Amino acid sequence: MPGSRSVLVLGATGNQGGATARALLERDRPVRAYVRDPAKPAARALADLGAELATGDLDDTGALRAAMTGVHGVFSVQPLAVSAEELAAEVRQGTAVADLASQTGVAHLVYSSVGGAERHTGVDHFETKAEVERHIARLGLPATVLRPPSPATRPTSRHSAHGTRTC
After folding, report:
1. Cα dihedral sign, 19-22-24-30
2. What's the rounded Cα separation, in Å, for the pair 44 and 69?
3. φ/ψ of residue 100, rounded to 5
4. How many CB atoms lie within 10 A of CB 115?
């Protein structure tokens, strides 16, 4: 995959990540699917479609760094967070992904946020997404922030060559 326009898809066996990985594969785009369990049926199905599987979890920065090495882009989505522990993990994981993307020379990061994150609503889940968005912006990493109206919505995006684009 080095030198290609490959994309690392986080959450590749979930709703958003899975839809993203399949859409990219349908367009003949090389995909590295980041999965916790490569034996899981959803992971096997992606491999059968041509995805390269990379194993790890979002708190394993070594595995994330290895998975990011050589890819052109990263699609970043974290699990829905509700409890205080989950909310803290969402920020920790989202900012770590952005940091690693910057450090490994990823050309473009796509971050799946939530509609309304920019409005300072006081809703915990929205505020954690906004915190990750601000971190990405501070890094100056070329990025697209998707803001679907709810976490269950599968986002679509227009492509952006440079800078941060919010859809």
Report:
1. positive
2. 22
3. -65, -40
4. 18
pLDDT digits (tens, 9 = 90+) for 86-129: 999 999 999 999 999 999 999 999 999 888 788 888 877 788 99
Q: What sign results for the dihedral spanned by CA atoms 24, 4, 61, 84?
A: negative
Chain-centroid distance of CA 59 in Å reads 14
> Residue 27: which residues within 8 A CB-CB, separation 6 or more?
none
Provide the total of helices (H) and of strands (E) in the chain, helices listed first. 5, 7
Contact criterion met (CB below 8 Å) for 152 and 159:
no
- Bridge partners of 148, per DSSP, are none
Reference 109, options 95, 91, 130, 120; nearest CA is 95
Q: What is the pLDDT of residue 158?
A: 38
DSSP secondary structure letter of residue 95? H
Q: Which two tokens stand for residue 56?
A: 């790890």
Distance CA 19, CA 15 (A): 6
Q: Which helix (H) or strand (E) holds 8?
A: strand 7-9
Rounded Cα distance, 4 and 18, in Å: 21
Q: What is the DSSP code (8-state) at residue 70?
A: T
Closest CA to 9 of 28, 26, 34: 34
